[in-house]
Design brief:
121 residues, binds adenosine-5'-diphosphate, 24% strand, alpha+beta, 3 helices, 4-stranded antiparallel β-sheet, Rossmann fold, binds magnesium ion, 24% helix
């Protein structure tokens, strides 16, 4: 399977304030599949996507992408995974507000190995 999340646990907070955003969650997605994750607000969708996108780490469980485990990657390896292997569209875009649209695109072209043509984009 392309994406495989198994027995995933993510807890925010401690003790009485602890919230289990992922409470032994499983997810399997085949290569090339388009998948919609539906659920009420607060059900853990963003938390799960943050794990798949290498933005955050699990407290327990397994996560593999195309057979490769994301568990135990160093911060640098996770940065490279985000840079080279995964695309992530944020709910609130996360553009840099002091930059123009063009400059926001250029930020990415500066760090990409094969940037798209700025004027075309
Ligand atoms: N950074 C955080 N600190 C504390 N609690 C959080 C944090 N992020 C999410 N949560 C909690 O985890 C649960 C799942 O949130 P989230 O993954 O954002 O759900 P969804 O995207 O489905 O709305 C919610 O109860 C939310 O309040
Ligand atoms: Mg969300």
């Amino acid at each position: 399977m392309f994406i495989c999340l198994k027995d995933a646990v993510k807890r925010y907070g401690e003790g009485e304030a602890a919230v289990y955003a992922l409470d032994h969650a499983d997810l399997v997605i085949g290569k090339g599949k388009i998948c919609v994750i539906l659920g009420p607000s607060g059900s853990g969708k963003s938390t799960m996507l943050n794990m798949l996108g290498g933005l955050d780490t699990l407290d327990a469980g397994e996560l593999t992408i195309e057979g490769r485990s994301l568990i135990g990657l160093t911060p640098k390896e996770r940065t490279l995974y985000r840079k080279e292997e995964v695309g992530f569209v944020f709910q609130f875009y996360n553009l840099i507000p002091d930059l123009t649209v063009e400059e926001n695109i250029e930020v990415v072209s500066d760090i990409s190995e094969s940037p798209l043509d700025l004027s075309e984009v």
